[in-house]
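Methods: example folding runs. The two proteins below were folded one after another, and each record is reproduced exactly as written to the output file, sequence line first and structure-token line second.
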Amino acid sequence: MTKSSKSIIALIALSLASAGFVFAAAAESKIAGCCAKAAADGKKCAHECCVAAAKEGNNCTKCKGAGKIEKKAEAKK
């Protein structure tokens, strides 16, 4: 292999790794479907597993949620 082909391979590997980190960071927090549906109706989800996870500040993993619950920004007056 020549020096330039090794550089190209290294550059490709580095870009793939950085893209993986970007996508992993974007998928950190995911609201469970049942919780999202309840929020759209102006309610809170009543599933025991969701209530317990919310007390800990997490989205319910049993209902296919993931990560910490994101805090909503305060509305400006």
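Second run, written to the same file directly after the first:
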Amino acid sequence: MKRLGSVLHTIDNLLIIRADKTLDMGLLSPNSMVFTKKMQNIGKIKEIFGPISSPYISIRISKNVSSPELMGMKNERLYLK
């Protein structure tokens, strides 16, 4: 698994994260699956935006993730498989 980044904000059914400094930007593409450290699939990459050196990534949340789970994800690290 590759570190994607840490959760900054939750907005409706989106998570906004800042990409990890060690992330190879060539691995990023819309619709890539995103996982927690416990290997729970939480959604897909929707959009990559911001500065090239340190981009932000929006994650479209899967329907199987509950609202309380989303609130507890702040500062949690997410991963690409």
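Comment on the second run: Strands lie at 2-11, 14-19, 33-35, 41-49, 56-61, 77-80.
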